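User: Can you write out an input/output pair for a complex, sequences first and structure second?

Assistant: Here is one pair. Inputs:
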Amino acid sequence: MLDRLRIVLIGTSHPGNIGAVARAMHNMGLSDLALVAPRCEVIHQESISRASGADHLLHNARIHADLEDAVADCTFTVGASARSRTLPWPMVSPRELAERLPSECQPSGSRVALVFGREDSGLTNAELQRCNAHVHIPTNADFSSLNLAAAVQVVAYECRLAWLATQTQAPELSSDEHDDTLATHADLERYFEHLERTLVAIEFHDPAKPRQLMARLRRLYLRARPEQIELNILRGILTATEKQAARTKTTPDNPSTHE
Amino acid sequence: MLDRLRIVLIGTSHPGNIGAVARAMHNMGLSDLALVAPRCEVIHQESISRASGADHLLHNARIHADLEDAVADCTFTVGASARSRTLPWPMVSPRELAERLPSECQPSGSRVALVFGREDSGLTNAELQRCNAHVHIPTNADFSSLNLAAAVQVVAYECRLAWLATQTQAPELSSDEHDDTLATHADLERYFEHLERTLVAIEFHDPAKPRQLMARLRRLYLRARPEQIELNILRGILTATEKQAARTKTTPDNPSTHE
């Protein structure tokens, strides 16, 4: 799917922005860059520097005289736009756009163009009216003009997420949370018994006046979902603590235990 | 909600990136920028130029000597991270992070820090281990390093969408999970110091041979998101434990301390 997506930049005036767009595209797995009548050099110290290793996209970029030429082979063309223009047009959010891409990209030969305008003035009405739909990135109403590469970054990010969702085994990030087996219920209960015994030994807890102490500690640890290895550490701490408490008990410092 | 979010940049070396971050933040409606030990001038021709009208964020940015100081008052701290580190940590996608924000920002006094590292080397393991969770932006595996401002743009965009969703829906009641204020970052760091001191006192921990002990304990407690009252209990346990250890040290059972 990602190889069916083309980023089209019209009338860009800063080489740094073109480089930053190349970097954002390559980060998100896009590679097809088309430039319409750029108002600056494309291969330039600034664009190479900002591309930060994605400069092959700059070298491979095709230069076109007008939008028509850049999107001639595309089956779905979407223009980035500020809010509503004089003539209302089908408008999608970046997320809605991305959700449509898997089906837009399915037919063989299909190709999607995502078109971004000039830094100072965006796309003209004539250009917008050559698009199937417009995409608008939600912004602060008082400060709505995104940097060109930032706009491409947001749209390309949504495209990547939509593509990841189509992969049968989307990489799961949340599974990174643990590197060991979670403790079982029985392990945890043994831990709570050990904890209570230790708290009594260090004279922090009086089972005759329990208040909410053990309940609060249970809630805390059950919320944390400890792993086996973490529980082993916690029990090791309890054992070391008990050892200190036992030594204290056998010393004259604490004669009550001899009575 | 957006006014509860702080963007923290650590060790940034290019003024242009700081300016571009300010622009991305203001575009998305964020305004609280904190800079930790910047390795460049903050108010600079390049940063002003790239901020493109959002330079009040640069002038209002607070400069801190270290991460501790920048997030001391925060109740939820999330660090931007590449994929796996030696010790896996709770990991969320930008979207999962954003979906958590409305409830994270609901309690009065809550404040969320989104922490981004150096252009060349990201966040250190020590910095990452001060975070409740890590956020990873899905990228091309062969070219995974996003520009700093691009990373902030993506995360801030997701924050804005999550905020917009709260504007159109009935405000969601937060879960019953907590009945007290969450501990702040500074409270937790004091707890970790106290914990380490106590583990040394009971001879469970040798700072000369740290292994992963403190990192694993940090991960466990940061994952649990302790409340103030829970942290008070945990610190009470440490104090009681220290008292036992101190009594042991003054007895003939342990003559080494008299040498």
